[in-house]
Design goal:
- By secondary structure, the chain is α+β, with helices and mostly antiparallel strands.
- It has two domains: 2-207, no CATH class; 211-389, Glucose Permease (Domain IIA) (Distorted Sandwich), CATH 2.70.70.
- The protein has helices at 2-44, 48-51, 56-121, 124-129, 134-208, 211-242, 250-261, and strands at residues 274-277, 280-283, 291-294, 297-301, 306-308, 313-320, 326-332, 335-345, 352-353, 358-362, 364-365, 371-380, 383-385.
- The strands form two sheets. Strands 1, 4, 5, 6, 7, 8, 9, 10, 11, 12 and 13 form an eleven-stranded antiparallel beta sheet that branches. Strands 2-3 form a two-stranded antiparallel ribbon.
- Helix 1 runs antiparallel to helix 3 (56-121).
Length: 394
């Protein structure tokens, strides 16, 4: 019975440690990824403080950084909680195993003493030879063998239990040290977060004094979006007229199906960047009671960033749109991907393009520290889709 209890304790500990290891690995991976993203955002923002550039885009990049920092702090709290749970379980396990060890040692000691007394008063050979017949003698031999085996098993269990107690105590000390280290790092992250929140509030305060300029920028953004939508509608109508009875060719249908099958796994249209404007309708970050509507997303990257095709397809159109630089539209069967705010296009209409093929250079905005912002859209025929649902998670 004691052996069963001991084995049950060991099994529970092993299962918990395995689950804990998986959870902790996931948390560490998430934290590592978030810290890498924070480092990239820092690079995008590296000139902001120096040049005192306070814009909506800078505010959005900083907000993205705050969200990443908060996820790091949250992950640390979760890991501390997991470690605390393991510490409690290890303490309980040590208590149970040490209690069982005392009982086992006492039982083993009593067994040895009883055996010694039996041998002294009645040696084993006499005990066997005094049997009334052969069967009884055989049974006495088996009985003595079982006693020897029992003592050997008890000794092995005691040794295993001592070893497990030692290993558990080592894990306990390691977890306590890890919690201390995590709490220190958590405090550092919280201090960084406070500083970034203060910076965000300063930018908000500054931008609120530029309401007239912001409204003007928003109106211009809406006009540009309208021009892009008209251009998309024109391209779609041209494609419809070219197609026989409005149907896709077998090759176009295959590309279309493959594009659809890769939803959520398509590569980003830039090698790396920060999403600074999301799809759909959202409250303006500064202007009260004002909303922004976006038919795509905006991705801000460092200077000298190029746009890449997210899937194989055919270049349907290259257009220059007033206030939006150049736009490339690539057809993937019934789907379209749109790359706007380019200044140097590296493909031409009718070209067959492959996944991650460079489409063009993104405009470097001198008012945004020469950072590049790609305006990226995906359409299914005339319907605008949320690109974040189609591209892979960074």
């Amino acid at each position: 019975m004691k052996k069963i209890v001991y084995l049950s304790v060991i099994f529970i500990i092993c299962v918990f440690h395995k689950t804990f290891a998986q959870s902790r690995t996931e948390l560490e991976e998430q934290r590592k990824k978030a810290l890498e993203e924070i480092n990239y955002v820092d690079q995008v923002l590296k000139n902001t403080e120096k040049e005192k550039n306070e814009s909506i885009n800078s505010l959005r990049i900083l907000s993205n950084k705050l969200a990443l920092r908060e996820s790091v702090v949250k992950g640390m709290k979760q890991e501390i909680s997991l470690l605390s749970e393991r510490i409690d379980l290890n303490k309980l396990a040590i208590e149970m195993m040490e209690r069982d060890l005392v009982i086992l040692k006492n039982d083993y000691s009593n067994s040895i003493m009883n055996s010694f007394r039996l041998r002294k008063s009645n040696p084993e050979i006499i005990y066997i030879l005094s049997a009334k017949d052969f069967n009884q003698g055989y049974k006495r031999i088996k009985y003595l063998q079982q006693i020897t085996k029992f003592r050997r098993n008890e000794a092995e269990i005691i040794a295993e239990l001592k070893s497990e107690i030692g290993e558990t105590k080592v894990r306990l000390e390691s977890d306590l040290a890890r919690i201390s280290d995590l709490k220190q790092k958590e405090e550092q992250q919280k201090n960084l977060l406070k500083g970034e929140q203060t910076n965000e509030q300063n930018i908000l305060k500054s931008l609120r004094n530029k309401e007239k300029q912001l409204r003007k920028e928003l109106e211009e953004k809406k006009r540009v979006a309208g021009r892009i939508e008209k251009e998309i509608a024109r391209i779609i109508e041209e494609e419809r007229k070219k197609a026989t009875k409005g149907e896709l060719t077998p090759e176009q249908k295959l590309i279309s199906d493959n594009f659809s099958d890769n939803k959520g796994r398509l590569p980003w249209p830039v090698e790396r960047g920060v999403i600074t404007s999301h799809f759909g309708t959202h409250p303006h970050p500064i202007l009260k009671y004002v909303t922004e509507e976006n038919i795509g997303i905006e991705i801000t990257s460092q200077p000298n960033t190029v746009a890449r095709s997210i899937f194989k397809g055919e270049v349907s159109a290259i257009s220059t749109i007033q206030g939006a630089n150049m736009t490339v539209i690539i057809k993937h069967g019934k789907y379209l991907s749109v790359y706007n705010n380019l200044v140097k296009v590296r493909v031409k209409k009718g070209d067959k393009v492959d996944v991650k093929q460079i489409v063009g250079d993104i405009y470097q905005d001198p008012e945004e520290n020469n950072n590049c912002t790609l305006k990226f859209m995906i359409f299914e025929e005339k319907n605008a889709l949320d690109p974040e649902a189609w591209i892979t998670k960074m």
